[in-house]
Give the backbone structure.
Amino acid sequence: MTAMRKRKCITFSYEGKRYYCYGKTLLEAGEKAVEKKEALMTEGVTPRAKIALDEYFEEWNESRKGSIRASTERTIGEEYKNISAHFVNGTGQNLGKLSLDRIDKRMVLELQKELSCRMMTSTVNCTIALLRRLLNEAVNDRLLDWNPCNGIKPLKRTEESARDCGHRALSVKETMLFFEKAKSSRYYNLYRFLINSGLRCGEAGALKITDINKDTISITRTVINTAQGLKIGDDVKTRAGKREIPYTDSLKRIVKDQIEINKNTFNCPKSGVNQTEHLFYSPRRGIVSVSSVDSDIKRICIKAGIEPFTAHAFRDTFATRAIESGMNPKTLQEILGHSSYGITMTLYAHVMPSTKAKEMQKVKTGV
């Protein structure tokens, strides 16, 4: 009896039943508790449920190749890295190394909490949604009886909306200051083109000379980021993104100037670039990278003494100037290539404070 009192005990509940595991030390008792719980969890479980989450993801992801865009595949891959690398307390392993049957709700909540400390709410929710989808497939494959992600609610968004932070239009003064300092940049004509067309940076980077007609410019592809690096995709971001935009006089002047620059810059055998193919190239004669463009913009903003922005602000500014000039919002939607009217008005149709003040002066109440 004395010996029994000296033994250490670890208890746990599983499916409503209490289990007791003993050992000479707490560590030994804990190890036995882990072994017992694993044994209980594997009872009646398909042997394939012993497959690691990483391995199951590879199988699932491979089965979807060819049915999704390369950019989507890359995004999913990045999101899954956040899942796989998560260190699960009490297991000594990363989540991706655990077998499907060992993953429980506590681990998913732990993952959600850890990601929320270093990522945007929307990214966290997308990551948990991916894990939920993956484990749903495991349930459909009859590898699991239930999905441990069930009942876990998405986090409430606390950050500013895209309209309030990531998307902003430049004021007329900011625009003038920026372009004055941007004249020496190799991307100068690209910036002019973006703010005069409303195109996304990737769409302009994928534009070919043959896409430019007498009165219109055909938008049929965009630059995509794949696991192998940047490439010109075979399609645009959305179905509505494939469109024709008017080839205005201002755009004609920019295009003419850029074609001349391309001829002078790349018109030699050593360049390895066909200057008659694409309109815009990177300074290293490759595909235009949004990240390098944004870095260049930041450098120019510091010189101009204005708040830094990204290339997307040119698109935002184009939309804002269009609305302020009286353009029909439905027409703007088609030019921007949005799938819905709501996206256009919510994200891009900002109205500058000065414009609101002028419009307010027009209101006559009679009292």
User: Anything to note?
Assistant: The longest helix spans residues 121-140. DSSP finds 15 helices and eight strands in the chain. Confidence is low (pLDDT under 50) at residues 160-165, 269-273. The chain has three domains: 2-43, 49-140, 172-353.
